[in-house]
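Q: I have two molecules that I believe assemble together. Could you output structure tokens for the complex as a whole instead of separate predictions?
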Amino acid sequence: MQFGIFTVGDVTTDPTNNSTPSEYERIKAILTIAQKAEEVGLDVFALGEHHNPPFVPSSPTTMLGYLAAKTENIILSTATTLITTNDPVKIAEDYAMLQHVADGRVDLMMGRGNTGPVYPWFGKDIREGIPLAIENYALLHRLWREEFVNWQGKFRTPLQGFQSTPRPLDGVAPFVWHGSIRSPEIAEQAAYYGDGFFAKNIFWPKEHYMKLINYYRQRFEHYGHGTADQAIVGLGGQAFMAKNSQDAVKQFRPYFDNAPVYGHGPTLEDFTEQTPLTVGSPQQVIDRYASMRESFGDYQRQLFLMDHAGLPLKTVLEQLDILGEEVVPVLRKEFAKNRPAHVPDGPTHAALVAKARAAEAEQSIGFGGTSINVPLDSAAVN
Amino acid sequence: MTTRSLVVVSAGLSQPSSTRLLADRLTTSTVERLDGFGVETTIEVIELRDLGHDIVNNLVTGFPSPKLSAAIESLTAADGLIAVTPIFTTSYSGLFKSFIDVLDPSALTDLPVLIGATGGTERHSLALDYSMRPLFTYLHAVVVPTSVYAASSDWGTGADGGTGALPDRMSRAAGELAALVRDSDRSSRVIDPFALPAGFSPVGGYGAQ
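A: Yes, here they are, computed for all two components at once.
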């Protein structure tokens, strides 16, 4: 089980003192937060991608490349990489490059993006969002697994004899999660390739995400990647903590009331009851998130949103201290209890390489020991 | 005995409201007609006033509260709808439209609907035909030909007031709705929320590969 944080990278005015960080300050703050995540023992830092204010991370691999040099262990991921408006060829190159730079500590999460104007700004049409996501990812999947690709589709120019460079580190593509909030097509594609499925699980009731994850688990089994409870599931979450829960509520309320997305809407009390947002003591956060496996089954990755709505850097770093020191160690123990042995751990590059080598060895035995460099398919990777 | 589900949406704001009064009269009349067909009717009344905050919260957050979600589910699986709104500033009320706006665009497909409205004067009666009716047509609901507008003065007319009188219009509209509700199978339909579009392929369609 992996624990980490994800950020959307919003530049939001702090409602308690009306100050707004500059883009420079916010970008530097995000980089500081990511390094803090490693320092407090988290496993994953995931960065959003946006091409419209008030969000700053338009160039995720630049920031993640910097973090690759500044960190040792943490997995650098995305939340999400826009598979609709980015060219899949460039994604293949950028993230294979990052994989080398970061010694394999890279995976990524595909998402469509729901901001209408961003599509035409990149020459695309939001009404074709799902076909774009499906076709682009199918191409990306091949670019990382086949040396030379001949390809023709609807949404980009055809490719003849194209070799994406650099090749993935150790011949093993970065692990991919597919994020979706309502589309069975995306869950279906994730299951088809045996990739991970991530439900952001914030802002909406968890019951909504439970249905989609169940569907993904069933389809994962259908496509022969393992049993439904071996499907690779990630969840988002959101928390704000203080030693006494009343202090947490008091401190977080102005940020909640003015937050992008849900601010000026429901009360903090209604929203924390109806969605996984938990505002209270560390123990309340532990209780809430330890119970997630009862709703979603044993899963592989839990990411928390900790730094949005104008929370100052100092507060976010304090929150990460609490998360890393008081919450995650307990959650690790809770999630380990009665976890069946056949349920996979969170994906790492080392594990994927080992699995790929084992699959190759099996195949070369099957072919009389003559085969090397067997192309990996998704079933072999997962 | 056959059972059909009838949902009544009333957007009146005062309590008691003439909008609710009209909705109740239309409901009684429709249920009597269905009784005559040997159809038992379950009735659920959705008072939008009680859901006002939930509707606005849904507009802001994108998801319904449990209370609003239950109302939307009932409406989505109904065999018939009686929708009554006050006419405000030439059209349905903002609360009524906001409720419609949080529904899935396909939620009312094939739904038999009787539309009604209330207002201070008869002069706004055409609002039913230039705003309410196109709204439901856009959503692929089946709107019965007779719509019922009740101005304040209509509450003082009797059944002998000719074909234009309120009781006669209510009766005719209820008859039209009841016939469609009787034949509806919407409440017994099973909808797969994960149905994939025809021709979907996880490796991309459109001649890829």
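A: One point stands out. Confidence is low (pLDDT under 50) at residues 369-382 of chain A.
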